Amino acid sequence: QARFDFRWEDQFNLSLDPETARSFHDETLPAEPAKTAHFCSMCGPKFCSMRISRDISERFGAEDGTELSQEAIAAGMMEKSREFAASGNRVYLPLAE
Question: Predicted confidence band at 70 (pLDDT cuts at 50, 70, 90)?
């Protein structure tokens, strides 16, 4: 749950070596605002599986917070597939100049 909610301090404290976990995180995302970011340096903000899952839940989930239906999950994945295809099916986008 700490990972899904981006509760970084909880994640560090749950690790086997909190100090090392915290230093690795701070090394890859050294800016102060990044320490509370809702993504990590592994996938970044555009491909964060936790953020994408939350976006799908918020967009297609029931108002009462119940679990998504399989149809709703499939609809969300289909939308993301269309976005990916519209970007040229490229995992790595060209650098901005």
Answer: confident
Structural domain contains residue 95: no
What's at 41, amino acid-wise?
Answer: S
pLDDT, tens digit (0-9, with 9 covering 90-100), for 7-35: 777 888 888 898 998 888 777 766 776 66
Number of domains in the chain: 2
Distances from the Cα of 71 to the Cαs of 53, 60, 67, 74, 76, in angstroms? 15, 10, 11, 5, 9
- In degrees and rounded to multiples of 5, residue 33 shows phi and psi of -60, -25
Helix (H) or strand (E) holding 79, with range, is: helix 70-86
Which tokens is 35 given? Answer: 């320490």
Residue 78: which H helix or E strand, with range? Answer: helix 70-86
Nearest CA among 52, 51, 45 for reference residue 29: 45
Kindly state the greatest CA–CA separation across the chain.
45
